[in-house]
Design a protein that fits this description.
Number of helices of chain A: 14
CATH architecture of the largest domain in chain B: 3-Layer(aba) Sandwich
Number of domains of chain B: 2
Radius of gyration of chain B: 23 Å
Number of strands of chain A: 4
Order of helices and strands of chain A: HHHHHHEEEHHHHEHHHH
Structural class of chain B: alpha/beta
Distance between the termini of chain B: 68 Å
CATH class of the largest domain in chain B: Alpha Beta
Radius of gyration of chain A: 19 Å
Oligomer: heterodimer
CATH topology of the largest domain in chain B: Rossmann fold
Strand order of the largest sheet of chain A: 1-4
Largest sheet of chain B: 5 strands, parallel
Order of helices and strands of chain B: HEHEHEHEEHEHEHEHEHEHHHEEEE
Strand content of chain B: 15-25%
Largest sheet of chain A: 2 strands, antiparallel
Helix content of chain B: 40-55%
Number of strands of chain B: 14
Number of domains of chain A: 1
Shape of chain A: globular
Largest interface: A-B, 31 and 32 residues
Shape of chain B: elongated
Strand content of chain A: under 5%
Structural class of chain A: mainly alpha
Chain lengths: 309, 381
């Protein structure tokens, strides 16, 4: 058995100590939202950072999960866990059907195609009022696992923290596997990787389906956690937010995903007191970090520390 | 220079300390409004109104000798953010009361939080679901879409118009309006002989209008939409020479609507809050002084036209302040009971009389029927 990554131990320690330091449920809420975003971004980073493919429609998959968990239990009496599974399966199925044609595209065209996909999902959620409640959204029943209802920010932390830890561990292992090496190879050069026997199309589809699956699961959990969903979750802006987290944190960096999600979830809350200037400051922070650290926070800092040594 | 700075700082600090020592503990009112994003046209006047009146109340000595303090966050028109900021207000800022939720989605995402924490919460959103079924801690001040539909149908029936065509927008506002209109029509003996929709960004509604014109027995047209669409309907109807009376919903009640219609609005009717026609109300109307007072204070302070949305915030704040005074303290359960007991409060939206089964407290008389005459509003009912 291999030694676990030191980063994983640090993250585990932080997650273990955090509950002792957080003063009230609001801070637990922020940390929970950080964890949700971090996990979605981990999946998205596999696609964007490692495989070099863009998706501007990922909030769509998040929305599919969220609405599956809202609609199936409310209208059809499904148990929440089954609804979550159905949502994730649906998202994965949609991704696997749509991926082969759109991954024939690349660059701007791929960005446009994925954007279109996200927009279509968002429009459906807004207009199928009878099922989704339309733009006003709909309530989501609480999540019960093994007969226990998860209630309150602290209990949810107990769910999100281990899931985050597991996701980071799984991502790291995936990247070190032949699958991960194939992804990085096709990022470098599709022709070269084809020459050495990597089935480029198959790997692109696989990683797209995986990231859609993760987004859908987290969408379901978020819906149960918040207790209410609106079509905003599947919004284009939400997709952009997720991609921003990937880019700011650092492409092709597992910890970059976590740092990006933590930073971009905390910033709006920290800036909320700026009264009308928050969007300006938010934009400035993003611009400066991109100008001075174009590779993202974690890879840039890691390189600097490496040089200093 | 340094000495001068020091002196200044000392003075400021001294003053601040003195203020703190003198002033009683403030009453904290938390609010989450959509000041940016698509719902900003609602949230912005709401926030400005809250600021204006809290300042005013504090200048006059506060409530029960305690100043009011507004803790405000902008949800950017995203209900998910509203939920997060709601938690922040309750858990971290420890506010005493909540006002806000510009949209129905934002309100409903915060409602469970207020319920769990036991905090009186007055919403500024339109949806019927907020008060039906009644939720213990949740109240609201704006009229519902159902009331707008009922008021229009009431007026139509008086005019002997019972076979009507409904043309609704596919936006959130229009869809809610469509649902409520269909329900209200069935209840009030109105027959919807045609039921058409248009997209919020459509630039031509003549196909729908042609179809409506061709439908047998249509006596009047009821348009449920916001912004550009209803004005385009007016223009298309004029071009097509549509003779039937046209009714609109309360969402277009602004001067802008008449301007956008470029003369084609002549004769169209709609329900609106008294605020829009404050100066034209008869002197005997009890709402006249309230509406005029609000309109004057707002336009003097912000140098912009008032909107009925700011009126929702005015009513919410005043109902809350009234309840705090009657409860003689900020005990949350007592204030909640007192909000529920609000009787005959004359606000910008109408006269509120709440009860354990009615957490809105407005009846149809809160809506005035207006008609556009000579490019201006005229009170017709």
């Amino acid at each position: 058995m291999r030694r676990p990554h030191p980063g994983l131990l640090v993250l585990g320690a932080i997650l273990l100590v955090l509950p002792l330091l957080l003063p009230n449920a609001f801070y637990f809420d922020i940390v929970n939202r950080m964890a949700i975003n971090a996990i979605v971004v981990l999946g998205l980073n596999l696609l964007i950072g490692f495989a070099g493919q863009i998706s501007l429609g990922h909030a769509g998959f998040f929305g599919i999960g969220a609405y599956a968990s809202a609609i199936l239990p409310t209208h059809y009496g499904w148990p929440p866990v089954a609804a979550m599974g159905a949502g994730a399966a649906g998202a994965a199925l949609l991704a696997s059907v749509i991926a082969p044609p759109i991954f024939r595209l690349s660059g701007h065209y791929l960005a446009m195609a994925t954007l279109g996909l996200g927009v279509v999902i968002s429009i459906v959620l807004k207009n199928e009022t009878a099922f989704t409640g339309g733009p006003d959204g709909m309530p989501v029943p609480p999540l019960s696992l093994f007969g226990l209802e998860i209630f309150g920010e602290r209990q949810w932390y107990g769910l999100f923290a281990p899931v985050l830890l597991f996701s980071v561990w799984a991502c790291q292992n995936l990247i070190d596997s032949p699958f991960g090496r194939a992804l990085r190879a096709l990022h470098g050069s599709e022709v070269a990787s084809q020459v050495v026997g990597v089935d480029v199309a198959r790997y692109k589809v696989a990683v797209f389906v995986l990231s859609a699956f993760i987004a859908s699961i987290m969408g379901s959990l978020t819906a149960h956690y918040v207790g209410f969903v609106t079509p905003n979750v599947a919004d284009f802006l939400h997709s952009i937010e997720l991609v921003t987290m990937v880019v700011v944190g650092g492409m092709a960096s597992v910890y970059g995903s976590v740092v990006g999600a933590v930073l971009l979830t905390a910033l709006p809350q920290a800036l909320a007191t700026f009264e009308g200037w928050e969007t300006v400051v938010f934009g400035a922070v993003l611009m400066l970090s991109m100008i001075f650290m174009p590779k993202g926070l974690v890879p840039t800092l890691a390189a600097r520390l490496g040089k200093g040594r | 220079m340094n000495a001068f700075l020091k002196a200044c700082l000392t003075a400021v600090f001294g003053f601040a300390l003195a203020m703190q020592a003198n002033a009683a503990e403030p009453i904290k009112i938390g609010s989450v409004l959509s000041v940016t994003g698509p719902a900003a046209f609602l949230g912005d006047p709401e926030l400005k109104t809250l600021r204006l009146y809290i300042e005013k109340i504090n200048k006059e000595g506060g409530v029960l000798g305690r100043p009011l303090e507004l803790v405000h966050y902008d949800d950017g028109s995203d209900a998910n953010n509203a939920n997060s900021f709601g938690k922040r207000l309750i858990e971290s800022d420890k506010v005493d009361f909540l006002i806000g939720g510009t949209t129905t989605g934002a309100t409903m995402s915060m409602a469970p939080l207020a319920d769990r924490a036991g905090i009186p919460f007055i919403s500024l959103a339109g949806g019927v679901v907020i008060v039906e079924p009644v939720k213990k801690w949740l109240f609201k001040t704006p009229h519902t879409d159902r009331m707008a539909a009922e008021r229009v149908f009431q007026h139509m029936k008086k005019q002997g118009l019972t076979n009507i065509a409904l043309l609704s927008e596919t936006s959130g506002f229009g869809q809610s309006g469509k649902k409520e209109s269909e329900a209200a029509a069935a209840k009030m003996g109105i027959t919807l002989v045609a039921n058409e929709t248009y997209g919020p960004k459509d630039t031509d509604m003549s196909p729908q209008l042609t179809k409506i014109r061709g439908t047998a027995g249509v006596q009047a047209l009821f348009v449920f939409g916001l912004g550009q669409g209803p004005a385009i309907v007016n223009k298309n109807a004029k071009m097509l020479g549509l003779k039937m009376p046209i009714y609109h919903a309360h969402g277009v009640a602004s001067e802008e609507f008449i301007k956008l219609s470029e003369g084609a609005a002549e004769g169209v009717r709609l329900p609106a809050a008294a605020l829009l026609v404050a100066a034209k109300l008869p002197d005997s109307d009890p709402q006249k002084p309230v509406a005029l007072g609000y309109a004057k204070a707002y336009s003097e302070r912000y140098k912009e036209d008032i909107s009925t949305f700011g009126g929702h915030a005015y009513d919410a704040l005043m109902i809350l302040v009234g309840a705090i005074k009657r409860a003689n303290g900020v005990d949350k359960a007592k204030v909640r009971d007192e909000i529920e007991q609000t009787k005959g409060f004359i606000g910008a939206d109408g006269t509120f009389t709440m009860s354990p089964t009615d957490h809105l407290g407005l009846d149809l008389s809160a809506f005035r029927m207006l008609e556009v005459k000579n490019n201006d509003w005229a009170l017709i009912d």
